[in-house]
Design brief:
Layout: E1 14-16, E2 22-33, E3 39-49, E4 55-57, E5 69-83, E6 87-89, E7 93-104, H1 114-117, E8 124-125, E9 134-135, E10 141-150, E11 157-158, E12 162-167, E13 172-177, E14 181-182, E15 184-186
Parallel strand pairs: 5-12, 6-15
Antiparallel strand pairs: 1-4, 2-3, 5-7, 7-10, 8-10, 9-10, 11-14, 12-13
């Protein structure tokens, strides 16, 4: 028995009906003898044809899509946020380590804009480009490192950040939140 795995990334909704998968392979079937009497392997061509499949691709619903949704599809996601430092001055960078865990395809997961996740742009500045993140060794989480800068003395905490995902089992968007992180802020 042979297994072949391949991935598809659909780019539009509809019904995907590829032709039936077919595999042709030359496999060793035994041994024979050549014209000099030496033993040589014998092989034969085999073909296997699977039943055709149809896959219905549905678009994610537009209604009810939270601002903190980017591309996460799966179940039981959780978010943890840690700050590299909590005693800061205005203008200081703070490295946020955002860990996302869940049942879904984490390799292509994109971190939403931190402002959409709940980090006020009047209190914090953040890079425009989302970080790429790195998969954890166990494959059950993805860690993002985001450097933000404190803009105001009014910031007393890193607020609870929201992360939204689409659950295909329920057909709805779900949102999870991190715990807020208290800051001790001094002037610049």
């Amino acid at each position: 028995r042979f297994r072949f795995h391949f991935g598809l990334t659909p780019n539009k909704p509809g019904v995907l009906a590829p032709p039936a998968p077919r595999v042709v392979a030359e496999l060793q079937t035994g041994y024979g003898h050549d014209s000099f009497g030496f033993q040589v392997p014998q092989s034969q061509l085999f073909q296997a044809v699977a039943k055709p499949v149809k896959v219905e691709l549905r678009a994610l619903p537009q209604s009810g899509r939270p601002a903190s949704f980017k591309n996460a599809v799966g179940q039981a996601f959780a978010i943890e946020v840690q700050a590299g430092r909590t005693v800061v001055r205005v203008g200081d960078p703070i490295e946020l380590r955002v860990l996302l865990r869940g049942k879904g395809r984490l390799a292509g997961l994109i971190l939403p804009d931190v402002a959409a996740m709940g980090l006020s742009p009047t209190l914090f500045s953040a890079p425009e480009e989302p970080p790429s993140g790195e998969l954890l060794d166990d494959g059950k989480g993805k860690l993002f490192r985001v450097s933000v800068r404190l803009r105001s003395l009014d910031a007393k905490e890193i607020p609870a950040l929201s992360f939204s995902y689409f659950d295909p089992e329920t057909g709805k968007y779900d949102t999870v939140q991190s715990q807020p992180i208290a800051l001790s802020v001094k002037g610049s």
